UniProtKB/TrEMBL annotation:
UniProt superkingdom: Bacteria
Name of protein: DPP IV N-terminal domain-containing protein
Record bears the keyword Signal: yes
Residues annotated as signal peptide: 1-19
Amino acid sequence: MKKLLLTLTSVLLCAELFAQTGTIGTRSENKDSDRLLTMEEAVLGIGIRPENRSYSWRPGTSTYTTVQDNALVGIDAATGEQSVITDTGTLNAAAGTDMDSFPYYIWKSGNEILFAYNGYMISVNVEDNILTGKFTPPSGAMNITPNGRGYYAFTIDNNLYLCDSNGNVCPVTDDEDPDIVNGQFVSRNEFGITNGIFWSESGRKLAFYRKDQSLVTSFPLLDINTRTGSLFEVKYPMAGMASENVQVGIYDPAANSTVFVKADDFGYDQYLTNITWSPDDKHLFIQVLDRAQKNMKLNMYDATTGDFVKTILEEHNDRFVEPLNPLYFIKGSNDRFIYATDNRDGYKNLYLCDTDGNIERLTETDADVAYIGQDGKNVFYTSAEVSPIENHLFSINLKNGKTTRLTREEGWHNISLSPDGKYFIDKYSSLDTPMVITLNSSDGKKSETLLAAEDPVKDFAYGEIELGTVKSADGAYDNYYRLIKPKDFDPSKKYPVIVYVYGGPHSQMVRNTWLGELRTWEMYMAQRGYVVYIQDNRGTSNRGAEFEKAIYGQCGQAEMADQMKGIEMLLSLPYVDKDRIGVHGWSYGGFMTISLITNYPEIFKVAVAGGPVIDWKWYEVMYGERYMGNPVTNPEGYAKTSLINKAKDLKGKLLICQGAIDYTVLWEHSLSFIRECIKNNVQVDYFPYPCAEHNVMGRDRIHLMDKVTMYFEDYL
């Protein structure tokens, strides 16, 4: 009777579990081939990526351009008529160069193109094939940024320079203090910051970042390439410690003068983010964020004097506010703009605002959206409202609010909108569909296929790929997963499992793209007899503010709870060997990997962690304090999530790989964990990559993935 009751209970539990899961789609195994991936193919992707093509829109037109046979060809989107705009022979004659293939190019205006070739930049008017500028960057020049009118801003070391259309170079800044940095990104690339130079729309004024990092502590890294080895230091503001002081300068080339924006809302270590020029060059808009990242002010400044004009709107959140997007001004307007935030209605939506502070919700959807463009009458955006693992294009009419869905095919759509908004080029794929590129009219009357790529892995022995969902630990969400079954899968056999995990903010590992966003190494392992499992959890992106902010103050806790729901599902599968489960991840995924094997030693037998965060107090201020708060105000959270305290609980086999010159997750993290293992007489394996930064790249990565693979082969 006891046995019968246990069996019945087990059946009921399995039924309940499967009620909490669902299959979205399946790509079948290719049983017609025995061809296995090599590690080089798995890492470098050579020969196994779908065919792709590059297109650009000619400014001010409905003509898109592409390179064919060393010529730049323009295609009229309305008629399909093709014409050669220029070719390498014509460019060589105009510019005095010897190009043997068509170079990388960027449209500067409807007739002018900027080319990068052989270490210098050339601008050519392709209407008359006349050289309009040639810029040879000085030695050491970095961050080269053209204004589209013959001027180039660039940095050398920590100062900012300008080269005019006649080739004259003048300094914009002349700071001698090495702790003062001009014209480069600030805040360690957080808040959507990718550069430090911002030309106005006309190209007549230049805004730039200036950061003072004199109070920021330094961390030494070892360069083994010198005869006796040498140390070099990187400035690294750790959570709870002194941070940068950031300013924004505005340079007027005509007057050769600079003013600094008077932004002092939140003190020394506030963040100045998402710099936006007004279309008339008169004002600069900055989203000013306090250090705690709970309060943000969208401020307007006079671009001539740097004076504060007004605060247009404010945001507050008890967990965090994270501004990531600049303002998008409505065509023809200097005072109406689109603003994106997830802080007002629970999802990242678009809002129509003006400089008087009026704000109106534009996209009324309970899903995250992303701005694509606008034509003054309609705003185009992509949205997760069809499915969190799909990306579709919509438009909304600014006058009547009518919303139109513009993409219908299943999958993830990447959009390039024509300058006039009448056409768009759509690159999309889905689980079974490699790259498809189409040209479409925004009114829905025209759709033309430009490319339907063949399956480049049709001759490989790829195992079955399943996309599905499993409930989050709190029962509120469907978390999406990708499961790859072994080659020649036999449901009567037992297979080892490798869980690949990242799990951190701004990530989405599972999408309805070709092969389900597969990392090719996953299939490499499936071909060698492993079940491979990848799942997104609370804290990752594209699911709304509550889903993302669930991790606040205790990074790793909600994520682990969700990952373990996936493990429960795996353990219910008859072909999973519950005694052979491994886990692998890098960076935040390295943190998750060690968290899982130390918190659940009865489940995970083998783990490989790369560049892992070990204790958030050693991570950078901008990211660490956003998700964990300050160590002074959240000591319990920092103690609970620290893996130093978990070293003694390690039971299985753990390999840690670390780039020795990693300035994202400092060596201090993994070495401190190793030291704690030694103190507790816990065995652990360690492999440094002496010349690698945070990620091991290039052909060195083949060695890394061989190392990871062999570790699972040896111990799992």
